[in-house]
Amino acid sequence: MAKGRVYFHIDQCKACGLCVKFCPKGILGLDEIVLNTLGYHPISILRAEECSGCGICALMCPDLIIEVEKE
Ligand code: SF4
Ligand code: SF4
Predict the structure, then answer these.
(1) What span, in angstroms and rounded, lies between the C-alpha atoms of 56 and 60?
(2) Longest dimension (CA), the chain
(3) What residue's CA is closest to ligand 1, atom 5?
(4) Structure confidence by residue, pLDDT tens digits, 1-33
(5) Is residue 64 within 8 Å of residue 8, measured between CB atoms?
């Protein structure tokens, strides 16, 4: 059961992969189908039900595009 929810402002994602690398649950990934307005494959959550709401992804994002809501 999820303990948190993440929201992304995907059009500002530069696909640097930092949040993917540091998520302790390994549940983030770049969307290989979608292209955002910057021309990158943006961040997406692969298994939302496993999110703990720890907030590490939001801390790591240099562009502050991730919001975490703790449940
Ligand atoms: S809040 Fe924590 S568990 Fe959820 S996606 Fe971000 S880093 Fe991963
Ligand atoms: S850290 Fe931010 S800019 Fe980098 S891939 Fe994650 S959401 Fe996108």
Answers:
(1) 6
(2) 34
(3) 51
(4) 679 999 999 999 999 999 999 999 999 999 999
(5) no
Mean pLDDT of 40-56: 97
Q: In angstroms, what is the span from residue 38 Cα to ligand 1's centroid?
A: 24
The pocket around ligand 1, CB under 6 angstroms, is made up of: 4, 6, 23, 25, 27-28, 51-57, 68
Structure tokens at 20: 């993917």
Q: Which of 66, 67, 68 to mutate to test the pocket of ligand 2 (most atoms within 8 A of CB)?
A: 66
Domains of the chain with CATH codes: 4-70 (3.30.70.20)
pTM for this model (two decimals): 0.95
pLDDT at 1: 67
Q: What is the whole-number distance in angstroms between the Cα of residue 40 and the centre of ligand 1? A: 21
- pLDDT-derived band at 71 (thresholds 50, 70, 90) equals confident
